[in-house]
Amino acid sequence: MNPTLTTLLNHRSIRKFTAEKLTPTEVDTLVSAAQHAATSTFSQQYSIISVTDPQKLAVLGEITGHPWLEGAGHYFLMVADQYRNAQLTPKNATTTANLHSTDKLLAGIFDAAIATEAMVTAGESLGLGSTVMGSILNDTLRVISLFNLPELTFPVLGLAVGHPAEKPALKPRLPQELVHFDNDYQPITANDPILSGYNHLITTYYHERGSHQRDETFTHHIVTEMSRDPKQRAEILVALAQQGFTLNSPIQD
Ligand SMILES: Cc1cc2nc3c(=O)[nH]c(=O)nc-3n(C[C@H](O)[C@H](O)[C@H](O)COP(=O)(O)O)c2cc1C
What we know:
Layout: H1 3-9, H2 24-35, E1 46-50, H3 54-64, E2 74-81, H4 83-88, H5 93-99, H6 102-125, E3 129-133, H7 140-146, E4 153-162, H8 193-208, H9 218-226, H10 235-242
Helix pairs in contact: 2-6
Flavin mononucleotide binds at residues 11-13, 64, 66, 131-135, 157, 171.
């Protein structure tokens, strides 16, 4: 064990914060940690928006269903960004195809997501807690318009950071046998005994944790997640098209 591993292995999302705001130095430190994360083709194809406007925070609270984010010590919006690259690139058929491609969309999303995790871990190393929020995509078009996101950008994640006012129990993860394989993919079946053991562990976790106790297994949780109405987020594809991402391979053109 070393301090880095201790931080990584003690991660838990924090959803209750004290009233203390992050200092400008803390904000700069988190952004630096994000910037030093690996970045696809060294293109640094993401932007970070600090959201301090209370009205915008309130809208994000509504969109995500997490009004508590308004009381966080700081809020970041992580944006996949090929717009900056477009400004640096002379326009021709090849550069246009690249900038609008699925490949570059994914690269921006990878960059934004990896940068987000760097901020989470950096924050935790400073005693801060955070919650990553994919729920900004509950109303992607509204987020795009709220932050004036130009063509070739896309909101990826929100990140609420602050001084923790709770210490939830660690959520047990899947046994490694189910996620880490040697050389070949190992398919799972729903009645796998290792999965059954994990389901028992998750049931105990949900019974014993401090809040929102309930009867739950991992299998049931996944069934619930997969049973949500897919139309709820169908707008994502509309938003991607609006932002200029074609989801086409140039070979198809
Ligand atoms: C991509 C992504 C999106 C997430 N979106 C949300 C969210 O919208 N709201 C939320 O409360 N937590 C969100 N989370 C946090 C997860 O719920 C959390 O990481 C997971 O339940 C495991 O719990 P832990 O982080 O406490 O270990 C998100 C996490 C990730 C990685």
